[in-house]
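seq as requested:
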Amino acid sequence: MITTKESVGIDLGDSVSVSTTLSPDGDVKDVFDFSMNEEGYRAFAERVPKDARIGFEATGMAYPVYRRLRELGYEDITVAHPKELKWITKSKKKNDRVDSLKIAKLLMVGMLPESHLLDRKEQMRRDLLVQRVRLGVEIGSMKASVIGYLKREGVYGSLPSGSDNFSALRRRAIRSLSFGDDRDLVVSIMMDRLEFFEKQCGPVEMRIRELCREDEYAKLLMTIPGLDYYLASLIASYIGDPHRFPDFDHLASFLGIIPVTRESGKIRRVGRMSKDGPSRARWALSIAVNTVMERSGVIHDYYIKVKGRTGSGKMAHVLTMKKLARMMYSMMLTKQGWRWEDEGLTRSKLSKLDGRSSDVAAEEEGGDAA
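struct tokens:
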């Protein structure tokens, strides 16, 4: 790759970063430290031309640095994928100046592996979705703790029967338990914590529904039976614009749902799922497979077929994840809904985004059509 621009590699630090500038011929033109504050950015802008190509690794400082450099007028910025730069950290000779030089050289020859950065709006949306995931984990953990404690104290069996361990009736029964000692305080604290986390879910879910109404990709995924606004929004957030992936194999690699392959000579070994990329995206896709299989004969039949062929439920689940992801990718590219869509079910799900019942939504659609 021939370039007429200077290439700048930055090794980011929390307080001080190192910049190395290479001329178009690959000669080191400038090396300097700059502070991660306004004074430092001004010093950087004085020494690096606005048309320079800039690259740095996707660390915790990547977002604020990227945004500040864009504000300063730099447009050609590449943020490198950290896993693809492992050889830097494994290098026998490692320091900030050496690393910034290597990044600049990779950038100059077009070999710096790019990482996708979210814009501010996408990042805030992702943050909300992640917080909802974490709240779900906290709630699940707290419920398990309460049940475990009550079983240990021998009172779990005295609670009213029911399929929901935390129905309103059972919650009242748990609150009314009386040990006559410090165990009453323990139960009260555990239930208070559970209800605190549950209360936090309300405003987060309301905002996610509002955002989903404006997200065409999420609404497309909601045409799949078993996917509600939350799972659809989470998966759509991680895939983003499907056109950024040249083909599905690139998306599968990003999601980490491809097998690890090792080749030596004529020997080729295919191992476990790579699990590279965002773990929460794989978690969401795994949950989606479970819920969609319950409602879609197409996905369920595929899972049964693969399980029969491989003899492994785990492998069948992973391959079904990959098939469902391929279908989602195609839907988002073509902007077409699920081929086997239940329109009534989709209408019901979409109506809940703005608080309407499915009957009201149907009546309004009928009135418009008339």
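The beta strands are 7-11, 16-22, 28-35, 53-57, 77-80, 259-264, 267-273.
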